[in-house]
Write a structure and sequence with these properties.
The chain has a domain at 18-100: Sandwich (Jelly Rolls). The chain is built from one helix and seven strands, in the order αβββββββ. The protein has one helix at 8-12; strands at residues 22-27, 30-40, 51-57, 59-64, 67-72, 76-79, 85-100. Strand 1 and strand 2 form a beta hairpin.
Protein backbone atom coordinates (compact mmCIF):
# COMPACT_ATOMS: atom_id res chain seq x y z
CA UNK A 1 0.00 0.00 0.00
CA UNK A 2 1.16 3.52 -0.79
CA UNK A 3 0.70 6.19 1.86
CA UNK A 4 0.26 9.68 0.47
CA UNK A 5 -1.60 12.79 1.56
CA UNK A 6 -4.45 14.24 -0.45
CA UNK A 7 -3.45 17.74 -1.53
CA UNK A 8 -6.69 19.68 -1.67
CA UNK A 9 -5.37 22.56 -3.79
CA UNK A 10 -4.08 20.07 -6.37
CA UNK A 11 -7.48 18.40 -6.48
CA UNK A 12 -9.18 21.76 -7.12
CA UNK A 13 -6.75 22.29 -10.02
CA UNK A 14 -8.25 19.21 -11.74
CA UNK A 15 -11.67 20.76 -12.41
CA UNK A 16 -13.23 24.14 -13.09
CA UNK A 17 -16.97 23.48 -13.40
CA UNK A 18 -19.22 24.83 -10.68
CA UNK A 19 -21.94 23.12 -8.63
CA UNK A 20 -20.50 19.68 -9.56
CA UNK A 21 -19.07 18.06 -6.39
CA UNK A 22 -16.04 15.78 -6.80
CA UNK A 23 -15.19 13.03 -4.32
CA UNK A 24 -11.65 13.03 -2.94
CA UNK A 25 -11.96 10.49 -0.11
CA UNK A 26 -14.32 8.20 1.79
CA UNK A 27 -14.51 7.36 5.46
CA UNK A 28 -16.91 4.55 6.28
CA UNK A 29 -20.04 5.53 4.30
CA UNK A 30 -19.20 9.25 4.21
CA UNK A 31 -17.69 11.08 1.26
CA UNK A 32 -15.46 14.15 1.32
CA UNK A 33 -16.30 16.23 -1.75
CA UNK A 34 -14.81 19.38 -3.23
CA UNK A 35 -16.99 21.82 -5.12
CA UNK A 36 -16.65 25.23 -6.73
CA UNK A 37 -19.70 27.43 -6.11
CA UNK A 38 -20.75 30.74 -7.61
CA UNK A 39 -24.16 32.33 -7.90
CA UNK A 40 -27.45 30.93 -6.63
CA UNK A 41 -28.27 27.27 -6.12
CA UNK A 42 -31.79 25.88 -5.69
CA UNK A 43 -33.93 25.54 -2.58
CA UNK A 44 -33.70 21.95 -1.38
CA UNK A 45 -33.42 19.73 1.69
CA UNK A 46 -32.00 16.33 2.58
CA UNK A 47 -34.65 14.39 4.51
CA UNK A 48 -32.32 11.67 5.80
CA UNK A 49 -29.00 13.35 6.47
CA UNK A 50 -27.18 16.41 7.74
CA UNK A 51 -24.84 18.17 5.28
CA UNK A 52 -21.51 19.72 6.28
CA UNK A 53 -20.05 22.74 4.46
CA UNK A 54 -16.42 23.77 5.06
CA UNK A 55 -15.35 26.90 3.19
CA UNK A 56 -11.74 26.61 2.06
CA UNK A 57 -11.56 29.75 -0.10
CA UNK A 58 -13.95 32.65 -0.60
CA UNK A 59 -17.29 33.24 1.06
CA UNK A 60 -20.57 31.35 1.10
CA UNK A 61 -24.02 32.27 2.35
CA UNK A 62 -26.50 29.54 3.13
CA UNK A 63 -30.04 30.87 3.07
CA UNK A 64 -32.86 29.35 5.11
CA UNK A 65 -36.53 30.27 4.97
CA UNK A 66 -36.10 31.91 8.39
CA UNK A 67 -32.59 33.41 8.11
CA UNK A 68 -29.10 32.83 6.76
CA UNK A 69 -25.56 31.98 7.81
CA UNK A 70 -22.48 33.67 6.31
CA UNK A 71 -19.31 31.59 6.04
CA UNK A 72 -15.78 32.69 5.16
CA UNK A 73 -12.63 30.67 4.53
CA UNK A 74 -11.99 28.50 7.57
CA UNK A 75 -15.64 28.36 8.64
CA UNK A 76 -17.79 25.24 8.86
CA UNK A 77 -21.54 24.80 9.17
CA UNK A 78 -23.74 21.71 9.46
CA UNK A 79 -27.18 21.99 7.86
CA UNK A 80 -29.53 19.74 9.88
CA UNK A 81 -31.37 17.01 8.02
CA UNK A 82 -34.70 18.11 6.66
CA UNK A 83 -33.82 21.84 6.81
CA UNK A 84 -34.58 23.59 3.51
CA UNK A 85 -31.61 25.66 2.36
CA UNK A 86 -30.08 27.43 -0.64
CA UNK A 87 -26.33 28.11 -0.94
CA UNK A 88 -25.16 31.33 -2.61
CA UNK A 89 -21.72 32.72 -3.43
CA UNK A 90 -21.27 36.19 -4.96
CA UNK A 91 -17.83 35.18 -6.27
CA UNK A 92 -16.42 31.70 -6.57
CA UNK A 93 -16.06 29.82 -3.29
CA UNK A 94 -14.14 26.57 -2.89
CA UNK A 95 -15.97 24.30 -0.47
CA UNK A 96 -15.59 20.84 1.02
CA UNK A 97 -18.82 18.91 1.61
CA UNK A 98 -19.09 15.94 3.93
CA UNK A 99 -22.13 13.74 3.45
CA UNK A 100 -23.09 10.07 3.10
CA UNK A 101 -22.34 8.30 -0.16
CA UNK A 102 -25.18 8.58 -2.66
CA UNK A 103 -26.69 11.88 -1.48
CA UNK A 104 -27.99 13.99 -4.38
CA UNK A 105 -26.72 17.57 -4.31
CA UNK A 106 -30.25 18.80 -5.02
CA UNK A 107 -31.68 16.71 -2.18
CA UNK A 108 -35.40 16.10 -2.38
CA UNK A 109 -35.91 17.89 -5.71
CA UNK A 110 -36.51 15.96 -8.89
CA UNK A 111 -33.39 15.79 -11.06
CA UNK A 112 -32.81 19.05 -12.90
CA UNK A 113 -30.05 21.10 -14.51
CA UNK A 114 -28.26 21.62 -11.16
CA UNK A 115 -28.34 17.91 -10.20
CA UNK A 116 -24.80 16.53 -10.31
CA UNK A 117 -23.71 12.97 -10.96
CA UNK A 118 -22.76 11.09 -7.81
CA UNK A 119 -19.46 9.35 -7.14
CA UNK A 120 -17.35 11.43 -9.55
CA UNK A 121 -13.80 11.20 -8.22
CA UNK A 122 -10.80 13.48 -8.81
Amino acid sequence: MTYAPITISAKFDLFSEQWQPKVIAEMNDYQFKLVRLQGDFVWHSHADTDETFIVLHGQLRIDFRDGAVELKAGDMFVVPKGKEHKPYAATEAQVMLIEPRGVANTGDLAAGERTASNDVWV
